[in-house]
Amino acid sequence: MDIDETVEFLVDTGASRTTLLDKDAIYLDLDYDKLPKYKENLSGVGGSISTYVIEDASLIIGSAQMGIPVMVGKHPIEKMTNEELIRTLRIPSLLGRDVINRFRLIFDKEKEELTLE
To answer: Can you tell me the distance from the alpha carbon of 13 to that of 11, in angstroms, rounded to the nearest whole number?
Structure first.
């Protein structure tokens, strides 16, 4: 699978793994049937969701490029009401500690700026 697109992530120091969620999986046109199912489902504030993995993902942050497995979470959007779907598709993908820990994380409250060095 070769995808060359930009995805915005929410930096989540509480997330152990970097995870693409529904909105970005749809944007990237991922085919869940072609992704291996992860050994366990991801769980968070909203509950448990089906989880797949892109084993050979390559993330580029600034000038740093790293190969890591990226989780892909899938909510049961086909069973949702329109209101639930709208809320679910607002959930951002998460940049987890598996990536954050490779950098120095700096938050400048005065500038309202977060930097990974």
So the answer is: 6
